[in-house]
Amino acid sequence: MNLHSSPDPLHFETRAIHVGQEPDSATGAVITPIYQTSTYAQRAVGEHLGYDYSRTDNPTRSALQECLASLESGRYGLAFASGMAAITTLLLYFKKGDHIVVADDVYGGTYRLFQRVFTAFGLEFSFVDMTNCEATRAAIRPNTRLVWIETPTNPLLKIIDVAEITALAHEHDILVGVDNTFATPYLQRPLESGADLVMHSTTKYLGGHSDVIGGAIVTSDDVLYERLKFLQNAAGAVPSPFDCWLVLRGLKTLALRMERHSENALHLAQWLEQHALVKRVMYPWLPSHPQHAVARRQMRAGGGMISFIASGGKAAAEKIAAATRLFVLAESLGGVESLIEVPAAMTHMSVANSPLQVDAGLVRLSVGVENVYDLMTDLDQAFESV
Hints:
The protein has helices spanning 12-18, 59-71, 83-91, 108-116, 133-139, 162-171, 184-187, 222-235, 241-251, 254-273, 292-298, 313-323, 372-383; strands at 76-80, 99-103, 124-128, 144-150, 175-179, 197-201, 215-219, 278-282, 305-310, 328-329, 339-341, 362-366. It starts with 11 loop residues before the first helix and ends with a helix. It is globular, with a radius of gyration of 21 Å. It contains 13 helices and twelve strands. The chain is of the alpha/beta class. Helix 1 runs antiparallel to helix 2 (59-71), helix 2 (59-71) packs parallel to helix 9 and helix 12 (313-323) packs across helix 13 (372-383). The chain has two domains: 12-251, Type I PLP-dependent aspartate aminotransferase-like (Major domain) (Aspartate Aminotransferase, domain 2, 3-Layer(aba) Sandwich); 254-383, Aspartate Aminotransferase, domain 1, CATH 3.90.1150.10.
């Protein structure tokens, strides 16, 4: 039974467990096997059973790609070796002289890839505050081919109105891509708001256990998919079968985890907003957030990421981050365990001395699924170090 194409589709939580993951036809195994093979026997020259070489396709990867497409309300999924591999493959879709409009608060690795790698191949990039539709409109050029959105953004947690920006871009026949890593398809589905493609670092919430590196692109556009599928095979930045299996395993509990991540984060954000040593808290579900109304309209909940600016600036931020006991001082995000970092000195060093430079006093929290009162107690004792 093809659950995704059913006229009466199952709910998200059910599809995360079942789509693309029917019991193995050869053995009856309930869990999708890890097809740890590089090549496949052919019945005759050029006549195979659907697979010939695992860079091109692999059954474990196919199961993951089908499930991801279903969860994002898309027709096609493509898995990659990392989130950056997914973005790199997407950029290979474009040619010298093409222009891309980018949100002005993006992951440091994305900025580095755009500015320090692909400008050398003739792509052009403009960074703009996409919470301002008119500023986005002004950034569009005759050669603009893609608008690249992060929402919530990393690390300032701006919320970009996907439907509004997509409508603007489509007026000019421009593709729209959305990095949906922070929100996940459980909290928002950009394709349903008109976006042409969605990207994920599956390393984060989709895998959910800090034990895998991966990326993905989902689209419903036939032409875009066929070209990206070709590039996936030609460039070869594909994940291993085991990595695909780990992400599939993580997807089964995605809905449960995102509920708890969001519940914990909201509780902590409300508490931090009242703290004397905190200058400002950035969390989409707080009424004080500048795009709170947009977040409420396009997201199911606020997610598990919080950023705040410590009142004492850089020195205070670094002391707090170093003094936690449950929050682990580490890069990345989206695992079941809570993490803390100082973006200016860690994940966003690549934007230093650029227009995207972040406040040295900014602290970013990836709020896990532990007991929220234990997390609050941990942060409270860390603030005492300042």
